[in-house]
Amino acid sequence: MPHGHLVLIRRNNMQKLIEVEQLTRYYGDHCAVNNVSFALEKGEILGFLGPNGAGKTSTMQMICGNLAPTSGQVLINGIDMLDQPKEAKRALGYLPEIPPVYRDLTVDEFLGYCARLHGIPMERRQKALDQARERTGLKDVADRLIGNLSKGYQQRVGIAQAIVHMPDVIILDEPTVGLDPIQIREIRELIRDLGQEHGVILSTHILSEVQESCTRVQIIHQGRLVFNDRIEGLEQQMRASSLLLATARTPDLEVMALMPPIQRIDDLGDHHYRIFHDKTEDPSESLAALVVNSGWGLRELMPERCSMEQIFIDITRTPISAEEQIP
Amino acid sequence: MMALVIAGREFRTLFLSPLAWTMLGIIQFILAFMFLAQLDYYLMIQPRIAGMEEAPGVTDSIIAPLFGNAGIILMLVTPLLTMRLISEERRNKTLTLLFTAPVSMTEIVLGKYLGVLGFLLLIVGMILLMPLSLLLGGALDMGKLAACVLGLSLLLAGFAAVGLYMSALTAQPTVAAVSTFGILLMLWILDWSSQSGSSGASVLQYLSLLRHYEGLLRGWVSTTDVLYFILFITTFLVLSVHRLDHDRLQK
Questions:
Q1: Structural domain tally of chain A?
Q2: What is the distance, to the nearest Å, from the Cα of residue A61 to the centroid of all Cα atoms in its chain?
Q3: In which domain, by residue range, is A247 found?
Q4: Best label site of A20, A128, A147, A188, fewest CB within 10 Å?
Q5: A314 vs chain B: nearest CA distance in angstroms?
């Protein structure tokens, strides 16, 4: 490719770190990834959700050049992964599901090797190593053999390996699997931290992880992208459409049901009620007034939030028809 | 450049396990034993052949057999060295590290190959010390010695190329070792059948590693033999690159 051409492409996609276009992958007859397109911009942390076997890992492997797509295109920083893999890979850091660490090396030896593989010049290598160790909390174990470290530390070495060369794009495949709660929190903080200067793709099936650390969510199901929105959009979907009410005395349900937004009232027993209402209107204020004015004794009134699990299950349970596709 | 980074790691990793040290020790011990036995034998017959015309010299009667034996012993040992090269990385899922780094498949294969080749050349160097020790007591035919060293180096480079390819085929180091050994042995004894004098015999004879190695041991550095080894090595390296690329294309 002529030099001028390359520069032009770079300029056009200055802010897009990753562009994935109509990515498709077949394993034999089985379609693992079907026509997936999306883009990632600087400063974004993209949560990649999906049930097991949905095509998350295949998609990530294709973005990282570990797997050749059947069709489609991957651009990293505007550079085509298939045409110029070496240039494209310079901007990539990838932590696969199983951290690719050599158990017979020490943490320092291993990270030094990774830095050399990514062509970091000698004078910057020590600094890069220090930085990666610092960020992943590996300072105390720098001289220990990776094989002797606990799973959590090995995972950190895997993350350190992905960030040692300061790539623009960091791709983490289930980075918190097998870690204890404290380590999980640390890793999540690290991910948020990394999201400030890099673009991060985070694959997981732990939903709270996405809620905590991501700015955007994608749900992949049966190889297709079925949901792609900012995290606020997802929270919108989670907005309550029911209230929980507890009273001291038996209220008159007939009277309550007359209020316009209320659609149905379930008696949960012991003066507890679940009130379903129109999503667009919140009846809690008028309901509270009604309960108090009628002297039923208001004890609790709480909006119920639809959990992320619920949304996830709703989206992924329905088999996808051919027309239904995120554009 | 990147190939050298990979080669460097590969070479150093060999010494992290006792395997490499054990091999260096045992090979040296066995060959030293053979060398001394050969030397004893030569000293015994020397007075008898002294008066003969065109009597075999020290180089012919001690060094050529030593290198011949070294070839056979290293045929047994090289598969153990090469078996882990790619198969172990594939099994431990660490190949991803190399696939994600800005390194081409050719560089990965060359790196792995050069790493193990460095170790094999170290063995050649250690073996070379034995004939050189004879310089203390007499003169050697340096040309013939050089041909022997070249021959053994090329032979080992060939072994390593086969081993690397076999390692690229599988995720089980032991399978790689056994199949490497099988192929090497087959290529070694291929010319046994040529005594029958059938039409295909000369082809088989040509393919045999032993044939080409023997020529070099006698001190005849012919382009045919050298070219045979170079083609042999290149073929298996190219096959390895293709095989590794296959991982990316289709899993």
A1: 2
A2: 16
A3: 240-304
A4: A147
A5: 32
What is the domain range of residue B208?
Answer: 2-249
Q: Collapsing DSSP states into helix, strand and coil, what is residue A89?
A: helix
pLDDT band at A319 (very low <50, low <70, confident <90, very high): low
Cβ-based contacts of A90 with chain B (< 8 Å): 102
pLDDT at B199: 65
Amino acid letter for position A316: T
- Same domain for A271 and A174: no
Alpha carbon of A114: minimum distance to chain B alpha carbons (Å): 8
The CA-based dihedral angle spanning residues A140, A143, A144, A149, taken in that order and rounded to the nearest 10 degrees: 40
More confident residue, B164 or B19: B164
- The whole-angstrom separation of Cα A270 and Cα A256 is 17
pLDDT the model gives residue A9: 46
pLDDT (average), residues A46-56: 86
**Count of structural domains, chain B:** 1
CATH number at residue A292: 3.30.70.100
Contact A131, A162 (CB under 8 A): no
- Find out whether A312 and A219 touch, Cβ atoms under 8 Å: yes
Range of weakest confidence among A82-86, A119-123, A323-327: A323-327
* Partners of residue A65 in chain B, C-beta under 8 Å: 99-100, 248
Q: Is the CB of A101 less than 8 angstroms away from the CB of B94?
A: yes
DSSP A50-61: --TTSSHHHHHH
Contact B94 A116 (CB under 8 A): no
Q: Given strand A224-230, what is the order of strands in its sheet?
A: A92-95, A169-173, A199-204, A45-49, A216-221, A224-230
pTM above 0.90, yes or no: no
Which chain A residues have a beta carbon less than 8 Å from that of B104? 85-86
Indicate if the pLDDT at residue A321 is higher than 60.
no
